[in-house]
Predict the 3D structure of the following.
Amino acid sequence: MEFVAVDPSRFLEPIPKNKECIRPLTSQRFKDLLKAVDPFTSASAGKVHGWAAELKALFLFQRWAGLRVLDCRLFPRTGLVGNRISLITKKTGAKIENRSIPDHVAEALLALSPDRIRWRRDFFFWPEGRKKEGLTSLFGDIIGALNAFLAFTDDNGTPMRFHSHQLRDTYAVELLLAGVLLEDVSKLLTHSSIQTTERHYAPWVKSRLQQLEVKSVEAMLRMGVKVGGI
């Protein structure tokens, strides 16, 4: 309509074909993430200044429960019994019942007192005065600011920004590399079909197969046969 002289979209970078890039965190990167929380919150103004325990517990919870981040933020206290969690996911309505989480994760959650000021008593990560729809932008801004205290790079040495979904990816990839079947990982992620899981995590499925190949060769060598001239 010629309202502007130049199409502004010309200056935008193209969207990568693989826009659902899976970048799980190594164990060291996850430790670095938790380590960065204290200096970040100490340097932050306002409410975030005192949220170190909440952020650490949130990151631990998503990493070891494999939940989408909104399900973590809206997770009710009634959903935790001992070290088992139960909930209905917000995105798909899938039911998770009695899923075990590590003891140290349950302890981090329970350490968040229901009597904390400016937090809703019935939830672990829902601040008072915030509507459900505003939680995504709130924590998105916090995690965006946290990146200034991180120095993550990918396997090629390229700077890599942290985003919360990487913790769910880490949960899935570590299970695959530990030998858990793809269909079981798919169920744990509450994907509607195994094709969704395979599309997202195909590279790590291949890595798992390579691990199995190495193990099978080692087993045959122990049996006293030669494999490929070895």
